[in-house]
Structure formats: C-alpha cells, structure tokens
Specification:
single chain, alpha/beta, 5-stranded parallel β-sheet, 5-stranded antiparallel β-sheet, globular
Length: 241
C-alpha cells in the first residue's frame, strides 16, 4: 500500500491536494492511504512512525516549524521517503538539495494538477529502483521489506525476531543465527551490539552507559566487552552522515 502524507497549514490546500492525489491513485488502481497534517510540528511529532509514509507533500511556509525544518526531521529517520515541496515561492531550491526533495510545485501554477500527476509518475518509477529491499522467508510468510524499515533483529532460542516499522511496528520471525544475519547485512549500516541484538544504526540516537537508545524509546543493553567497539562504530557512522 502507498501511504501519502499532506502537511499544510491551509485547510483548503490540503483538501485540494488530496482530491488531486485521490484522482491519480484511483486512476492507477493502486491501494493507497492519504493522511493530512495541519503543521510540520504535528508531522515531526510522529517520530519514528514517519517512516510508514512513502511520499510527503510539504508546504514550506508554515508557522512553528516550516517545511524545511520538517524535511530535516524526516531525513533524520528516513532517506527513502519522497519529499515534495508545495510552495507559493520559488526561492528555496538550493535548500531543497540538502534534504533531497524530489520536486518543487508552485501553488499558484495554472498546471498544478498536471505537475502533481507528473510528480507521482516520477515517484512511481523511482520506487521500483531506489528503495533497497530484501526478501525474507519469515515463519509468518515471505515478505519483501525495505532494510531502512528494519530497526533491529533479536536472537531468541534459535529464532530471529525482526522488528520492522510498517503501518505500525511489526514483528516477524525466522529460524537462523544472528552470526549469519550479521554477515548478510554487513554492508547495510547494522551493528552487532550484543550476542542477541543486531541494530540498524540509523535508529540509534545515543550510545551511553552500556546501552543503545533507539529513537522509539527502546533501550538495548551493550556488554562491557563490546561497548568500546560499538561506540566507535556508531561515532564513525554518524560522522559519515
């Protein structure tokens, strides 16, 4: 399912964009869900749950937290989300490069609907190539998941439990060893913090006092013997961002 967020403090424009997107999605025949947010602050307040969305239409000029600030918050948790800026002004292009915005659409453009359609066509094409996915044969069934949505893997009695953010935080399991999974995900920014935990560093906000804190509030223990290596790996990862 394609999940789209519209974040704009103008009720009229939220409704206008929603109608255009509904027409596009109904025509394409895809399964979709569109949610509206009245401010950047409200959307950013979702925290890690932001990654349930595939596309976000963002008004740049909003009070409290503008579209650029909101986009920066989005990028703190996801590089896969497609950000579309909707604005009354055309002077933010350079700022948009920093957050990898896929399009700028001017509100007063007479071809607004056509531009939204073109934008969605481009995003649909990109989604087939950009999002890094991997297929796992879970006990609950085979699933093709985005590695970016995988928070961490926990080893429990010969089974691996995957904690994955989809529409909500879901758990799937399969039989295997964490050693094998660590080798399989060696090039994908995962760090082994414990004999039982392999964690996506994107979601670690802090490493201290022998614990790794994730941005959904979960705290996972790090043994003393691993602590320095985990800390150095995490600091190096943050430095490369």
């Amino acid at each position: 399912m394609l999940k789209i967020a519209i974040c704009d403090d103008e009720g009229y424009f939220r409704k206008f964009i929603r109608e255009i997107l509904t027409g596009y999605m109904d025509r394409s025949g895809g399964i979709y869900e569109i949610d509206e947010f009245v401010s950047g602050k409200e959307f950013a307040g979702l925290g890690i749950e932001i990654i349930q969305y595939n596309v976000v239409f963002l008004d740049i000029n909003m009070n409290d937290m503008d579209g650029m600030e909101t986009a920066q918050k989005i990028r703190e948790v996801s590089n896969d989300i497609f950000i579309v800026f909707v604005t009354a002004f055309a002077d933010y292009t350079l700022e948009g490069y920093k957050v990898d915005a896929v399009r700028y659409i001017l509100k007063n453009n007479v071809n607004f609907s056509e531009q939204v359609y073109e934008c969605m066509d481009a995003i649909s094409m990109k989604m087939n190539y950009v999002v890094q996915k991997k297929t796992f044969n879970f006990n609950e069934g085979t699933r093709n998941i985005s590695l970016e949505r995988l928070l961490y893997i926990e080893s429990r009695l010969h089974k691996l439990e995957f904690h994955i953010m989809e529409d909500k935080l879901n758990r799937y399991s399969l039989y295997g060893t964490l050693n094998d999974m660590e080798r399989e995900l060696a090039d994908d920014a995962f760090v082994r913090i414990h004999q039982s935990y392999l964690v996506n560093m994107k979601y670690i906000v802090n490493v201290s006092r022998y614990k790794a804190e994730l941005n959904n509030g979960v705290r996972l223990e790090i043994p003393k013997a691993r602590y320095r290596q985990v800390e150095e790996t995490f600091v190096a990862y943050r430095g490369e961002l």
